[in-house]
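pls ignore typos typing on phone
manganese (II) ion + seq
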Amino acid sequence: MDETTDPELTSWVDVPPGSHFPIQNLPFGVAARSDGKHFITSAIGNHVLDLSELERRGVFSTTPLAGKNVFQSASLNQFMALGRDSWKAVRATVSHLLQADNPAIRDNGELRKSALIPASEVQMVMPVEIGDYTDFYSSKEHATNVGTMFRGADNALMPNWLHLPVAYHGRASSVVVSGTPIHRPSGQTLPEGAEAPQFGESRVLDFELEMGFFIGPPGELGEPISVSDAADHIFGMVLVNDWSARDIQKWEYQPLGPFLAKNFGTTISPWIVTMEALEPFSCAGPEQTPEPLPHLRSEGKRTFDIELEVQLSPEGSDATTISRGNFNTLYWDICQQLAHHTVTGCNVRTGDLLASGTISGSAPVSRGSMLELTWMGKEPLKLSDGEERKFLQDGDSVTMTGWCEGDGYRVGFGECAGTILPANEV
Ligand code: MN
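k done
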């Protein structure tokens, strides 16, 4: 096992019980100071560790990062492009510096003050320049639920679904970081029973509980990335909320798939949890029957045990937990997704985001969208303040969280949150 994931490791920085950021996690993100300056950082307990400051002081001069100044950037792209040897070297260095018995920062008051900052004093911002965003549809339970609602139980899964990870090319420009409000979109819809479409604000606004992964070293145009090589191109993972306007989607989606129903906003959590941190929580995925064609075959512990929760809070009210699931229920794994994406020779670039699709499990509580939780609005959710919801209302906040449960600690993703604002005038 990688020594940075040893469950026995402790830090001289206080890590409160239940924190998502023990020394075994060490995620990467970008924070903004009150003066607006952005800097690359890691997280430990309730603090952020300024990696740009450590780099300026030569902390990484014995790693493959020496002389590259990748942490002086306002995004992680340069660092992500370097590949796993560099990621591991930085992780090992940061882990050592934060270990309980290491005095290098702990006992250097001046360095400690400039590099270790209370998380409450910074704002997390978009960590990556995202060139392209792709959204998969890899939960069999989600695809079956949606297919049953729209086409009936006999035709729930399309004939291709068990043979390839279905996806569409999404919109990167509107991917935003947790905390960014989302305006209710307007568009065309065809109301039930109407003969002509109408234009107006979406009345069937939804979230989708997803996770996504970021591309590190790029692929080359014309050269597929195989399932077995895919992991070398994957830097880490985040939580994703793929906000969806179901009424717009229903009218526009055939034959080319979602367009305006999804392009008004996609929210990600600010911390990228690396594959090194997730490795101890790897596990088998669902059995795949029929066996995939050879170019999509994947073996062993091909996914991760990541517990997921969604909370809904009406404006001014307490949160109600409305969904509890696990990333490990997804049918197609991330290496299969990347292999499929590139099998034509499509090149992926550093910073591209590939999302899982809505994550729904077999239990009703694990459904990852309002569409499924309320079965198209037929079974409204009861919230803790006595209100009911079929779909999202203005002022509603949706907060997703996820974590891997270790023995006495959690390797977590923090939060992916957003609030719905009223539609803008068109
Ligand atoms: Mn989606």
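Residues 84-98 form the longest helix (15 residues). Residues 135, 208, 210, 242, 357-358 surround manganese (II) ion (CB under 6 Å). more later
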